[in-house]
Batch of 2 targets.
Target 1
Amino acid sequence: MQYLSMIEMAKKTGIPTNTLLDYFYRYDIFFREYIIEGGIKKHPLSKIKIITAIHALTKNKNWIVEKNIVDVLMNQFPDQCPMADAQSGSQLINSTQKAGEPGNDVIAPAEALMPKTEDHLLDHFIKHSPIGIFQADLNGKLELANPELAWMLGYESTEQAIENIKNLNDDLFAEKEVSQDFFFQLFEAEEVHRYRAQIATQDGRTEEVLARARVIKNDKERYVGYYGFLINISDLKNAEDKLLKLNQQLQRISRVDGLTDIPNRRCFDEYLDREWKRMARNKQNLSIILCDIDFFKVYNDTYGHQAGDECLQKVAKAIESMARRPADLSARYGGEEFVVVLPETGIEDALTISENIRFKVATLKIPHENSKVRKYVSLSLGIASVVPDPTQVNGPEMLVGMADQALYRAKEGGRNRSASMQKR
């Protein structure tokens, strides 16, 4: 069935949109979500609300076009809302149903739907509230539940919810431990605010909710039960999860080299700074290794940039495989250069790891026929080691500078080798 939007109704009836909207607002502020822009939806509450609005419209004798709008609105639910005499305000009720009969979706005279007293107003609020409302005794026996709570928990009616929920103290939330924690806080502090948790529906789904509850006392100030509210925030939680995932992806993109899939220069700089401070506190050695692929420009000129990218990827994985400890970090430093951070590692152990990296790359046997060192891709490596001084200005940059000097010595010494520097 094609439902009419508010704008379409205004066109068909000749009544200004704002006037039409204002009339609906008098009877249910939440009616807006069912009728504006997207059109009236097939929702149990929308059927009741529309009948209430229709009945009010038919009583306004100042509107010449009231019969026209009634016809338009009634056409939204022709199979569920037969009308005997809209102009006279007759009962809008299916002949097979009785007004106020439990379990009937639509279906009371419009007069019966409008609150007459404070009690009726409260009842109207509870029944039509868009949040779940409940009340229970100290043993968790559910005494009151509104339709929204029943729907949130997957029941077709409030009667079914009250009948099937045996102990709300244990069964309010999806996890029993969470329910116990919630009610422990409630009975300790007499009130719980903005408690986020998950409820489990009858069909096995979980919904994220925001819960609030307060104890009920008798005239002797003793607890006799509690009441509370549940607001479904699943859409908000889904949006938060998506945002968190996007942020994690952005964090990863900003800290991982796109070609080699290992940490990038930014990540290395941040990590080295943290480890410098940690090793300074612990008075332990901190070593780094700078690795450079020998004659890589010649390699690119010989085999092409695509082959050069593949070579970088293979070398990166080989270096990463040698930085085995949880605190070790291998990263792409830039171009054909890589770096390894080795906390709690002295110069001798760092030299051993450096040689292991060099041999690992050699075993790949990546052809490099125009290399002046050997027929395969090789590495030159510079090692620097120091016990960080917390008073040292630009300490991490100094350590990198030492490794760069050592790398220069390795290249001057004939390449395909390791060289080291140590500050005592």
Target 2
Amino acid sequence: MSGVLKIDIAETAEELKAVLEQQQRSSQRRKVQVLWWLKTGQANLSNSAIFVLSVNCAGSTTVW
């Protein structure tokens, strides 16, 4: 199936929110925030905001 991406996030929304609040580095905070948005349904993978946040730095999506 080309063009279909499925992500299973093991952490609960509450766990992600707690981790998000603990992050001190903005780069790490953005990554956790994207996961939290996806988990809570506030965003989906086709949202341009997700794309902008996840590829802000070259190669950052491969590091996750």
